[in-house]
Write a structure and sequence with these properties.
Radius of gyration: 21 Å
Number of helices: 4
Helix content: 10-25%
Shape: globular
Length: 295
């Protein structure tokens, strides 16, 4: 009996899946945004990791220069129903940062995890940097981190900041600046189906630049949990469902993707060999979508 119990704890099922860990690097330009000083009218560029939207990373059969989308993109499968977007059939995926509801309708589809240290950090960003002060659901300007904390605690019936996923603290931010002035973050693709020769590929959703808003194409404001507190009637918003399967439908000019030649190929014989090697995969996302139009 003891022998059977010990074997049960150590039995290797040789599953055809593995956890893939790595470091993603994005260019400094992905964290750069033009900001206009309301007092002087002068426009300057700011570099800040709070500019960085969700970074979507997937494992795919291969990466090609897409004729349909005009930029590097995972290969797509046969299009059977032309009314549906092409499907890349990914083996798995994950993100460096995801959308989280930050207690007010004003912030739906705008707040990404791993970007803000605390309430005051978020409020300062909106009021002092992008000049779009946060207002609560009654239309009152939110000027105090303590006031925002009280709103969040009351809404979610919580008692600690760690229960708010978007609050990272000083040690929980995703991105750090490297020696080249670009930004790096760790990532993990959990329980990813493994196929020898598959490629990793990713992209960065950058916020709107043209209309002064701070919106992301990867978030759907009509999805997610509903807020029906008092007279409220809106959704929290959440990431779109097909970001891994049909990324080209959401990528636009100004976003960054992994170039064809920069997509790392995983060439271990099988998932067992990959798990044993336990590599730290380096993924670079530096191809600026829209730059091909300037050639």
């Amino acid at each position: 009996m003891l022998l059977l119990l010990s074997l049960g704890c150590s039995f290797d099922e040789h599953l055809n899946s593995a956890d893939i860990h790595g470091v993603v690097t994005i260019p400094r330009a992905a964290a750069t945004r033009p900001v206009t000083d309301l007092a002087t009218g002068e426009t300057s560029e700011i570099v800040d990791t709070r500019n960085i939207g969700p970074v979507i990373i997937g494992a795919y059969p291969s990466v090609v220069q897409s004729a349909e989308y005009g930029h590097p993109h995972p290969e797509v499968g046969p299009v059977i129903d032309p009314s549906l977007p092409p499907d890349t059939y990914p083996y798995g995926g994950g993100t460096a940062g995801r959308f989280d509801y930050a207690c007010y309708q004003h912030l739906v589809c705008q707040v990404v995890t791993g970007r803000f240290t605390d309430y005051d950090d978020l409020l300062d960003w909106y009021s002092d940097v992008i000049h779009d002060p946060v207002v609560d659901d009654d239309g009152n300007m939110v000027q105090s981190g303590d006031y925002m904390r009280q709103s969040c605690y009351e809404l979610f019936e919580i008692t600690a900041d760690y229960e708010m996923a978007w609050i990272s603290g000083d040690d929980g931010l995703d991105f750090t600046e490297n020696a080249d002035g670009d930004f790096e973050a760790d990532f993990s693709l959990w329980h990813t189906n493994y196929k020898q020769g598959m490629s990793l590929w990713g992209w960065v959703d950058t916020p709107s630049q043209t209309d002064g808003s701070f919106q992301f194409s990867t978030c759907d404001p009509t999805l997610g949990q509903q807020n029906n507190e008092y007279t409220n009637d809106y959704d929290y918003g959440t990431g779109r469902w097909t970001l891994l399967n049909s990324p080209g439908e959401f990528i636009g000019s100004g976003d960054f993707v992994t170039d064809v030649d920069a997509a790392p190929v995983l060439d271990w014989e099988d998932a067992d060999a990959l798990r044993e090697a336990d590599p730290t995969v380096e993924l670079n996302i530096s191809y600026l979508v829209g730059s091909e139009l300037e050639d």
